[in-house]
Amino acid sequence: MKNRIINVQDVPILISQQELDDYICITDIAKAKTGESRSADVVKNWLRNRNTLEFLGTWEMIYNPDFKVVEFDHFKSEAGLHTFVLSVAEWINKTNAIGLYVKRGKYGGTYAHKDIAFEFASAISPVFKLYLIKEFQRLKEEEKNLEKSEWNAKRFLTKNNYLIQTDAVKKYLIPQMNYRENLQWLAYAEEADILNVALFGFTARAWREANPELAKKNNVRDFATINELTVLSNLESHNAQMIKEGKKKEERFKILQEIAEYQLNVLNTAEQIKIIEDGNQLAEI
């Protein structure tokens, strides 16, 4: 349960969250009319009113499939009589209502769903109701902004963690042989491996041999970053064009390697700038 407090015309009012919806302490609202000593009596008198019962009953029938309509009709038929007395606890127990609940001890009082609480505030004072709605809306806007800030912070941290994990994978799982300097493999290489070495620095087979457990269900491209996959797609297009032009493997590999290094550097630099900008924006919030 999440409790918050808003101040309406110097009256502190508790708000509690129950199952993803807000309930407002109408005992606190009643203090705006009579003070703390008689606030419970104000709630009881309000509940005796026939119009109040009709409003509560209609609300329950709309939102509460387990509401006991027969018991509600019984209360409604007695409402208005001088002898009629109804407590919040009795209303809840007899009708299985969910729009009101009573809390004991710390933060105690009668709480009402916000729809009902606003209706109760009307009975106290239409002016007070307007200020209550205004403060409640201000609270919801603050919570919305806070949630957005937290979401941005989580996204920022997740992105950084992803980059750290990616760097760790590259650091500890890449094969030892330098395929970019020793080009003996190139004469027998398939086109996919020419792209792999140009971008990653090693062949798919070398990666599998260095990572036998990971290779059971994955290949090297499964561990590529978004930027690397973007560059890989561009390399495939360039390579296809150079094959049509009749360029040999050695020439194509050199060109592809230069393209991969340049494009990856551009994308990674832009990404780091974006991360710094996001971090600065979060710091300003």
UniProtKB/TrEMBL annotation:
Residues 2-139 form the KilA-N domain. Signal peptide: none annotated. Pfam families: KilA-N. This is KilA-N domain-containing protein. It comes from Mediterraneibacter faecis.
